[in-house]
Structure to design on (614 residues):
């Protein structure tokens, strides 16, 4: 298992799954009832979160945010709710459980949704499994990038990694905003809703940056069969200020910023840059393959590897 | 946590969830698109399954069956697919993972559905989290039982518990059919489909018996505010033959048989008994409260307590 890595495991599992359903952030169910997006994530104590750096409300918030971000990654801005499976040892304090649910509820409430069901059971470690459902969407696709597109990001990257570093070092007061970005990230359903209101529901390229900006760029490039020329790397001002030596690496590989990385034809890209605050153009899509940054191919290294 | 029990934990969590969504086997989402049923379960190694008694394909089959049974429990006979979250140590053999997915796929295939998405990650123990989605349903409800109804079960109870016992004792050859019932249970979506074809989609009482027949009867009684007079307890012939001393207890409290326990007005009950093979009337719904068996109130004791 450890030898295969997450991608290897997924490729071995794919033959047992319905064709075409595996590989994106979520599954699209299309039927007479319109399209439905479903996505699931499993978070494990000491793998994905730790009591040291993460209060219960933040564990819950981040778990909900990750799943809502998976909906946004596919162009779904209308969540229907979350199902929460919770496994934990009998010794788990009830206050921790309540904190977890407060965090999930509060993150959901940002988007008018909530927890609609779930399961609790005993487990030797704390495990939180979340499934998010949403209606509409499916028009943002990893394989939807085309030569000539502009690459647009919806916000800063690296802030979450920097916030985690401050928590590890016991210096959260140095830059509370970075800590907030780490503990209470905002999934970008608001951007999706804005794009829908601008009339953009034709297929475009993109995904969220939960596993890092570099990972998202490489995945879009690979799945779309295009090259991406990275022109500039916007660095979070607080990252530049507090972590100048790590700023570039964390911007590329930090992960868990939950922004969107979009590939759009220039007229649509210009509309987005004009109407959605915080968006920046960072590159262009070219023929070829791979992601080029400062003349060299960009690796996914530093991206979270789950095994 | 251990002091509260599963029901206690759920009651503390309920305030953080959307009103009316918690307490049944799944959540019903009703909208312009018709109704959708979603349900989730978390299974943990050495809590819900063990490598000693359960080959990987059976772990997968049982996990899928439990979730499909939750759909059946709510009157949904039309599954849309399963999302599978899998956490496991790096040392997990790939053959185990593939066996798990074979089992899930094969159980789903019985009902023309399959795995549509998921997540894999590292965890200190094997954890399988499944979410099942289905369309239609919502008309079988725990609170739908009425005085005068007949209580009908769709098959034998206790067989799964007996099969497990044979595996523990290392004597599966004594009654392979009981072992099969334990390792490869059939969720009763077929019964739901049959009821729908008989035109029964008005609200009736009922749920599945995954936590035991006694548990289902007590829950229907409590949620509907009625009493249930248990008249007879059909005992699986192989249970009577191989485990005469435990037969009654396991029939009531064994669990994981995944049959349906239905509460129907007599005319509908008669139709079901005529048209659905294996169904039996076991009692009647009376005013009052609690489940009465041989003159005494029946407890849920023996039901699986997850903490």
């Amino acid at each position: 298992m450890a030898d295969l890595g997450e991608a290897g495991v997924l490729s071995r599992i794919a033959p047992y799954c319905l064709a075409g359903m595996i590989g994106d952030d979520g599954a699209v169910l299309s039927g007479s009832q319109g399209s439905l997006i479903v996505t699931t994530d499993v978070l494990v104590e000491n793998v994905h979160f730790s009591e040291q750096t993460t209060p219960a409300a933040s564990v819950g918030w981040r778990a909900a945010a990750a799943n809502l971000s998976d909906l946004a990654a596919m162009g779904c801005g209308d969540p229907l709710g979350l199902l929460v499976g919770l496994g934990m040892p009998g010794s788990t304090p009830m206050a921790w459980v309540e904190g977890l649910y407060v965090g999930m509820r509060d993150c959901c409430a940002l988007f008018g949704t909530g927890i609609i069901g779930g399961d609790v059971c005993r487990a030797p470690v704390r495990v939180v499994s979340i499934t998010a459902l949403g209606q509409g969407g499916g028009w943002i696709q990893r394989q939807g990038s085309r030569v000539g597109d502009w690459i647009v990001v919806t916000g800063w990257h690296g802030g979450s990694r920097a916030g985690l570093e401050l928590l590890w070092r016991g210096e959260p007061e140095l830059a509370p905003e970075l800590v907030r970005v780490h503990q209470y990230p905002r999934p970008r359903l608001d951007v999706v809703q804005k794009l829908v209101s601008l009339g953009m529901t034709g297929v475009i390229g993109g995904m969220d940056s939960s596993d890092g900006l570099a990972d998202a760029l490489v995945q879009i490039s690979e799945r779309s069969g295009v090259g991406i020329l990275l022109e500039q790397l916007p660095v979070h001002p607080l990252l530049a200020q507090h972590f100048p030596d790590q700023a570039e690496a964390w911007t590329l590989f930090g992960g868990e910023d939950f922004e969107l990385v979009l590939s759009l034809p220039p007229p649509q890209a210009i509309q987005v840059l004009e109407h959605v605050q915080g968006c920046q153009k960072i590159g262009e899509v070219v023929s070829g393959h791979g992601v080029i940054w400062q003349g060299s191919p960009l690796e996914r290294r530093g991206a979270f590897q789950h095994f």
Observations:
- Chain B is about 35% helix and 25% strand.
- The longest strand of chain B covers residues 34-44.
